[in-house]
Design goal:
Helices cover 26% and strands 23% of the residues. It has 13 helices and 25 strands.
């Protein structure tokens, strides 16, 4: 079948929600196109195998050289295959701060205040604690407490309490501030990706993997289909109702530009005929710049590269295969918190992730021994970057330039976050581990600390903003996620966020997918 009512491009967090919701009542022929595979493997579904995700499930993008990071090239992992980044991420369930969505509404995104989006978060969520004023208890996305957290993660929370920082058992409730253990998108001891949540077998839902999208077919100002390549075979799939683009903060602007929608001069430079001159496509890239420090310990409480650590891991793998229990249910980013570097801020501006293992270069470099790491990221960065085409070849990676730490305010915020990070490591139960900092620095010396930050900081994997939503004519999509100037085309993923949310972006992306499905249903009614 090559004729559908709706074609969804991208089977990630938002795309899974869109396709699942549009197909659930059986009245529409829906096609979901995904470049990767099904991701139905043990290495994907076992939480503790996250460091060993296969390359075929990760786009493994790199940035252009970053002046703000002392000329280094950054790493940008992105999920490939059904579930998208929800199939390879740390499974942390965070929505962001109420302030974020109220700010979206103030920026002109009518209908996107926290009060507006809360029902969609609740509709998506199946929290094992049960439903209440803040949470859904029976949605498709299973959310649960960690059952086997590392002792060090509990020590991290206790050390925050020793610094008079509040404990928070629910970062997605009335207030975000504080420290605690994260809830996770898992079910019965396994990763619960957006694909597992939403993509149920249905006769009216065609899921086609291995699909490289070449462009959206636009005729007379309307999206009518998608040109797609399956291996060496090229097809044009038609969509009577329209196309929903859910390829992510890097993929969605890339597909739009390949389709002739974007900055006219850039498209012409790449030999692409201009369908619509839209300067905002690929602009406004925002991402959480993050600094990771690690401490080596004598304690074997933590994951580590040693004979004892290998033996413990082997036993844990066997336990998980037999029972789906034990430490292989770890999300690695087990503990965390939200903190205001200035008490007068409207919301926390620093987020912490505690990992019971020593990390180096996104876990790509092996570190001998045992220990722990702490991440600190800038929640609402001022730096802005771009996504551009390296070439007109749809198989080529896009040119990603987050422009990290180009705004000095981000450096100052991160500096404050790193200083508190070291205080946490040197206080209370965490200090009892007597960890040795792997990258010591004089915290009182701004210049030395800034140099270390620029030498080691990188993304914590939350790019947004490249297909900005707004009420202004320059925005890429309007507040119903419809592409401006093109009928029958919607964009629904993190790329539409006008401002980066104060937290992990998976749950907000799923919420955007939930909302998009309603917008499309209304438009096609």
């Amino acid at each position: 079948m090559d004729q559908f009512d709706v074609i969804v491009i991208g089977g990630g967090s938002a795309g899974s929600a869109v396709a699942g919701r549009l197909s659930e009542d059986g009245t529409r022929r829906v096609c979901l196109l995904e470049a990767g595979g099904h991701n139905d493997t043990i290495r994907i579904k076992t939480p503790g195998f996250m460091p060993f995700i296969p390359d075929k499930s990760n786009w493994r993008f790199d940035t252009v050289a970053q002046a703000g990071l002392n000329g280094r090239t950054g790493y940008q992992p992105r999920g490939r295959g059904l579930g998208g980044s929800s199939a390879i991420n740390a499974m942390v369930y965070i929505r962001g701060n109420h302030f974020d969505y109220d700010q979206w509404a103030q920026l002109g995104c009518t209908g996107w205040s926290h009060a507006d989006v809360l029902p969609y978060f609740k509709r998506a969520e199946g929290n094992e604690r049960g439903g209440d004023a803040w949470h859904g208890g029976d949605g498709p996305l299973n959310v649960m407490d960690q059952r086997w957290p590392n002792p060090g993660s509990k020590a991290f929370v206790a050390s925050a309490a020793a610094l008079q920082l509040p404990e928070n058992p629910d970062f997605n409730g009335a207030k975000q501030d504080g420290f605690g253990l994260y809830q996770v998108t898992q079910k019965a001891g396994e990763r619960w990706s957006a694909a597992r949540a939403y993509l149920k077998p249905r006769p009216n839902l065609a899921i086609r993997t291995g699909a490289l999208v070449e462009k959206i077919v636009i005729e007379n100002g309307r999206a009518v289909g998608v040109a797609v390549r399956f291996g060496g075979k090229r097809e044009v799939l038609r969509a009577a109702g329209g196309v929903v683009l859910c390829a992510g903060a890097f993929g969605s602007p890339q597909v739009l530009m390949l389709s002739g929608i974007g900055p006219a001069a850039h498209l012409a430079d790449r030999g692409i005929a201009v369908v619509q001159d839209r300067a905002a496509v690929g602009e406004d890239l925002q991402d959480h710049i993050d600094y990771v420090a690690s401490w080596e310990t004598a304690s074997k409480d933590f994951f580590g590269d040693s004979l004892a650590g290998t033996w413990a891991m082997a036993k844990s793998v066997i336990e998980h295969r037999l029972k789906r229990t034990g430490v292989m249910t770890t999300c690695f980013a087990e503990g965390g918190g939200f903190w205001r570097s200035d008490p007068d801020l409207p919301a926390p501006d620093i987020q912490y992730h505690f990992v019971p293992a020593m990390l180096e270069d996104h876990g790509r470099t092996k570190v001998k021994g045992h220990g722990f790491s702490i991440h600190a990221c800038v929640l609402r960065p001022e730096s802005r970057g771009t996504v551009r085409l390296n070439s007109a070849d749809p198989a080529a990676a896009p040119a990603i330039d987050p422009n990290f730490l180009s705004d000095p305010r981000d450096v100052a915020t991160l500096r404050a976050g790193v200083r508190l990070m070291y205080r946490l490591a040197e206080t209370g139960p965490l200090a009892d581990y007597a960890g040795k900092a792997r990258h010591p620095v004089n915290l009182a010396d701004d210049a030395a600390l800034d140099h270390l930050i620029r030498s080691r900081a990188d993304t914590v994997y939350h790019p947004v903003g490249t297909c900005r939503m707004g009420a202004d004519a320059a925005s890429v999509v309007d507040p119903t996620l419809k592409a401006r100037g093109i009928d029958g085309l919607w964009v629904a993923d993190a790329s539409v966020m006008p401002r980066l949310v104060s937290g992990n972006t998976n749950a907000p992306s799923i919420m955007i997918g939930e909302r998009a499905a309603d917008f499309v249903k209304a438009a096609l009614a």
